Amino acid sequence: MNFRATVLTLYPEMFPGALGLSLAGRALERGDWTLDTVQIREFGLGRHRAVDDTPAGGGAGMVLRADVLAAAIDHATPEGDRRPRLLMSPRGKPLTQAKVRALAAGPGAVIVCGRFEGVDQRVIEARGLEEVSIGDYILSGGEPAALVLLDAVVRLLPGVMGNEASGGEESFENGLLEHPHYTRPPEWEGRAIPEVLMSGNHARIAAWRRAEAERLTAERRPDLLISAQPTQK
After folding, report:
1. For residues 9 and 43, is the Cβ–Cβ distance under 8 A?
2. Which of 42, 113, 117, 167 has the most crowded CB, counting CB atoms within 10 A?
3. 30-61, pLDDT tens digit by residue?
């Protein structure tokens, strides 16, 4: 079964965007995965297709209405559709490589792109939306985040990457950041490729790469090392 992505958005013209290029784009053309968009405003209310309203209790901005978004979700997910329903949200659980792999192994995803100040909590609960964040910062909407999530997932689908083994040593795959990379020329601006990489000794090379990955992780993301340590009993 091919991976099916359905994106609910007020700006469907933002898709496929970068997903229509390179590996993801070629895979889309081959039918390795499919991408559909649903215009939330089509389910808006009244003459002007209103999709938002003022926040209960007061405050700045507007909130995406529960009834409007629920109608769009129900339209996009007929009975029996078992795909996870994701809401791109800065308050969601951080997107991890493990989560990406789990999504890639599944049938697809329904992705809701929020706008304004947020989404009515009632539709999040009633339609079982799982909030997902791509980082501790605020975007103008969920569309860029959805593109990031889909790019991460699609590249892991069977046949998308030319070398299936190339993903095994990437950052986060083994709990560490990736080791440094080098290629020709052997020396550039007085900087030489580390001797061990030119030795042909695969055991030494593997040990060097592991040590460099651990060093970089300790310097830049010590939280990964802490989370990878076994729990003390």
Report:
1. no
2. 113
3. 999 999 999 999 999 999 999 999 999 999 99
Residue 182 marked as a ligand binder: no
Instruction: Spell out, as residue ranges, where the chain has pLDDT lower than 50.
Output: 165, 231, 233
135 assigned to a ligand binding site: yes
CATH architecture of the region 3-154? 3-Layer(aba) Sandwich (3.40)
Structure tokens at 40: 């939330």
CATH superfamily for 168-228 is tRNA(m1g37)methyltransferase, domain 2 (1.10.1270.20)
Which positions ≥6 away from 72 have C-beta within 8 Å? 8, 38, 40, 42, 43
Rounded to two decimals, the pTM is 0.90
139 is in an annotated binding site: yes
On whether 114 is known to bind a ligand per the annotation, the reply is yes
Domain with CATH 1.10.1270.20 in the chain: 168-228
Instruction: Say if residue 197 carries a ligand binding annotation.
Output: no
Q: What is the Cα–Cα distance from 160 to 180, expressed in whole angstroms?
A: 24
Domain with CATH 3.40.1280.10 in the chain: 3-154
138 appears as a binding residue in the annotation: yes
118 is in an annotated binding site: no
